Structure formats: C-alpha cells, structure tokens
Amino acid sequence: MRVLGVALLTAAAVFCGWSGWTYHQSAHSSSVPFARARDQVRRDARQEIAVLNTLDPRQSDAGLSRWLDASTGTLRDSLRRTSAQDRQKALSSGTAAVGTVTDLAVTELDTHAGTAQVIATVQVKLGSSLERKRFTAVLARTGARWKLSSLTAVPVGA
C-alpha cells in the first residue's frame, strides 16, 4: 500500500511540474503578443465596419463625423471630400441604416508594418428591410487603435 502511495505522489509531482512548465512556456511564447494584436484588430475592425454601414439622417453630422473617426488614409480623405450633393443623396431616403457585423476574420496581419486585412459579413437594417453584405477591409494601426484605410464590397456571386 505504501508503494502505491509513493507512486501516486510521484506521478502527481511529475504532472504538477509538467503543467507548470507548459503554462510558463505558453505565457511567455512569442505568439502571445501576435494573438493579442489579432484580437485587437478583430475588435476594432468589427466596430469600424459597423460604423461605416450606419447612418441616421436625423443625426447626419454626428454620423459622418463617426465615419471620419473610423477611417484613415485614402479612405478618410475620400470621405472628407464627399460633396454636399453626395451627402444629401445619402440622406434623402430618411431611413436610418444600422450596420451589424455578423462575422469577421483576420486574413493578414503585419504587426511590424501596422497593417491588417479582414473579411466581414454585415447585416444592414434599413427600416423594415434587411440587407446582407460582404466586405474586405484593410486596416492601419494609428496609435493604440486600428482604423479602416480601405473598405471594399464583395459581390455576392464572388
């Protein structure tokens, strides 16, 4: 009986040591910072893509301001140059558009260059109708945040 107790105690000590070693290895792995960056890209991309698919005509200036805040680079420049006529056309329906990202995946991430690419499916509610859209997006790290530098609709048949 005593031999069995010693064997069990030895097995438990070996298992405890192995568990501690594997935990230490995973906690200090070089993949941990990359995984954190990927998760941050997913969170920011989900938020920014939803913002660019949302606009309430009753609060158009605030909505357009959120569009500018969600974007950077050439996309932001393009949104900033939107003419008053284009804005009026976008707001003429009088119906609020509310975008919700239903699924998203990071397809490329370069933490050194501060760039990422994602694919996303978006559900846009326009009044009582629902539209489903697909996008590819490029993001750029701006300080502690990732912002959209490109947002391209993907045709459904593609």
What do these coordinates show?
The chain is an alpha+beta fold and 158 residues long. It has one domain: Nuclear Transport Factor 2, Chain: A, CATH 3.10.450. Helix content is 47%, strand content 31%. The chain has five helices and four strands; from the N terminus they run H-H-H-H-H-E-E-E-E. It has helices at 2-27, 31-52, 60-70, 73-80, 84-91; strands at 97-110, 115-126, 129-142, 145-153. A four-stranded antiparallel sheet has the order 1-2-3-4. The protein is elongated, with a radius of gyration of 24 Å. The N and C termini lie far apart (69 Å).
Strand and helix map with partners:
Elements: H1 2-27, H2 31-52, H3 60-70, H4 73-80, H5 84-91, E1 97-110, E2 115-126, E3 129-142, E4 145-153
Protein name: Membrane protein
GO cellular component, one term: membrane
Main location: membrane
Give the tags:
158 residues; alpha+beta; Nuclear Transport Factor 2, Chain: A; 4-stranded antiparallel beta sheet; elongated
